[in-house]
Amino acid sequence: FISSLPPPFRLHKPILARAASTEARTPARAPSFSVCWSVTAPLPEVLNAMTGKLESGQPSLLCKQSMFARWQYLMRRLSPLKVLHLLYKEAKLLCPAYQVLHLLYNEAKLLCPAYQDLFTCELVDPDPRFLFA
């Protein structure tokens, strides 16, 4: 399956550091937060592990909503297409290479539930300083 991915998609094998602790982690002791670092952000984001949002309630820079807002911001400046009121799923249909990948994932039964892509961008006219922080 992985060898048949169309360009520009490819299998990434990130080099990760092994955990030094040999103690097994149990779900009962799982932290209620997670921390995300981004090279473009001055500070790490502390996210609520249950909601996936920042402590302030704002979406993370790494969530689909924020990524979709960045895509819409760029598309409004680069393309004559009207992308403001598209669902996330409709936006993905605009990319033929993604559709080939989607079919391969579907055949391998690796797709997420369809309802996860049925949202519009709530960030209507965001300040690019916050989008690309």
Automatic annotation (TrEMBL):
GO BP: adenosine to inosine editing; RNA processing
GO cellular component: cytoplasm; nucleolus
Gene Ontology MF term list: double-stranded RNA adenosine deaminase activity; double-stranded RNA binding; tRNA-specific adenosine deaminase activity
Position of the signal peptide: none
Domain of life: Eukaryota
Domain A to I editase: start-end pairs: 1-99
Pfam families (UniProt xref): A_deamin (PF02137)
Protein name: Adenosine deaminase
Organism lineage string: Eukaryota, Metazoa, Ecdysozoa, Arthropoda, Hexapoda
